[in-house]
Amino acid sequence: MVLSELAARLNCAEYKNWVKAGHCLLLLRGCLQGFVGREVLAFHRGLLAAVPGLGPRAACSSLSRCSPRARQFQPQCQVCSEWKREILKHHTNRNGDVHWGNCRPGRWPVDAWEVAKAFMPRGQADKAGPEECDAVALLSLINSCDHFKIDRKKVTEVIKCRNEIMHSSDMKVSSTWLQDFQVKIQNFLNEFKNIPEIVAVYSRVEELLTSDWAVHVPEEDQLDGYECDTGVYLSESQVNEIEMELLKEKLQEIYLQAKEQEVFPEEILRQLEVVKEFLRNNEDLRNNLTEEIQKLDSLHIPHHQLDSEEPREQTPDAEACGCPLTKIKRVM
């Protein structure tokens, strides 16, 4: 049953394209982790050397009050105030979308990763290092911190592609889109010609995206999607693992959008229903995503449109970051 469900999914070329693109992002995440970890330590050491007063002996004197929330942070002690100033000096979006809520400011003097999280998108508060982050978190750090000397346009192009993958309502992308994605991800990888673990992924991405991605399905006694003499072969368990990673990330994205009221409740419900319908038809995936679905359902997203007289309140820095987001006043 499981194998036949997998074969049916992969007989859809556009869904297979979606999984292949997602697989490339997983490869990208894996090759960036070590590099990013090393660079964050170097960045932190540089900050401590430039401003000795930020070091381990400079403890926060007001832990209970120096507590950021979402994009808001008004430090109540001199140490955290100085750290905030230094972080903003190196932030490419210093006047806009900084997710201070990712961080524990009291740890900034001794924990490089707590500093790094100020350069990442929301939802990173519980991440203890690069090995726990997804590709977009690592890409956002590289893009937002001026320690990384890189063509930022190339980074933002890959981030945009990642968002298109995650926000694809039906989890499908066209072959034309996939070809464009290949150009953009390889342009980005070319920025790291002196980093062996990143260089090694370049050829893997090229092989993956240009081959007939073949999956051996014994029950069907055939190679799904294999029509010529060359291909990249994966077992059904490998493909299933990739699918699970992507779907978990997609559901986490929906969860954060809903929790922070970044889009209308109706849009959240629409996205969630599409995923649920997909999982109803694919039991092999559904059985492993129960916890993520229950987490979303626990938010009790309202099922009706807001009263037309209810005003929509702009989030404090939506305009500054160029995001057309609104905070929804929920009607319970």
Show the helix and strand layout:
Blueprint: H1 2-10, H2 13-50, H3 78-89, H4 112-116, H5 135-144, H6 152-166, H7 175-189, H8 196-210, E1 212-217, E2 222-224, E3 231-234, H9 236-259, H10 265-280, H11 283-286, H12 290-297, E4 313-314, E5 326-327
Parallel strand pairs: 1-3
Antiparallel strand pairs: 1-2, 4-5
Helix pairs in contact: 2-5, 2-8, 2-9, 5-6, 6-7, 7-8, 9-10, 9-12
Order of helices and strands: HHHHHHHHEEEHHHHEE
- Give the overall form: globular
Q: What amount of the residues lies in strands?
A: 5-15%
Radius of gyration: 22 Å
- How does the helix and strand content classify structurally? mainly alpha
Number of strands: 5
Question: Roughly how much helix do the residues carry, as a percent range?
Answer: 40-55%
**What does the average pLDDT come to?**
83
The oligomeric state of the chains shown is single chain
Please sum up the structure shown:
This protein is 52% helix and 5% strand. The protein is mainly α and 332 residues long.
Description:
- The protein is mostly helical and about 325 residues long.
- The strands form two sheets. It has a three-stranded mixed β-sheet. A two-stranded antiparallel sheet has the order 4-5.
- It has helices at about 1-10, 15-50, 80-90, 110-115, 135-145, 150-165, 175-190, 195-210, 235-260, 265-280, 285, 290-295; strands spanning about 210-215, 220-225, 230-235, 315, 325.
- Helices cover about 50% and strands about 5% of the residues.
- The two termini are about 40 Å apart.
- Residues about 220-230 and about 305-330 have low confidence and may be disordered.
